[in-house]
Design goal:
73 residues, mainly alpha, 2 helices, 90% helix
């Protein structure tokens, strides 16, 4: 008998969760197309800049380690 009550409670909780989720989604302010495009460009530029910085750092470290290894030969 307790299992049946738990199942009914679970069903009510799930239904309440969906109702609350729907009401919260109505409060969301979705970005405009222009904002999405602008934010996407910002992300792309940041990724390129960070990638270039990592590439430069990698090149410098590779050159430095290569120079140190040449000294030991």
């Amino acid at each position: 008998m307790a299992d049946k009550a738990k199942k009914e409670n679970a069903g009510k909780r799930i239904a309440r969760w969906f109702r609350e989720m729907r009401s919260e989604l109505k409060k969301v302010v979705w970005p405009t197309r222009a904002q999405v495009i602008n934010n996407s460009w910002v992300v792309v530029v940041c990724v390129v800049v960070v990638g270039a910085m990592i590439a430069v750092f990698d090149f410098l470290m590779n050159t430095g380690v290569g120079a140190l290894l040449d000294l030991t030969r």
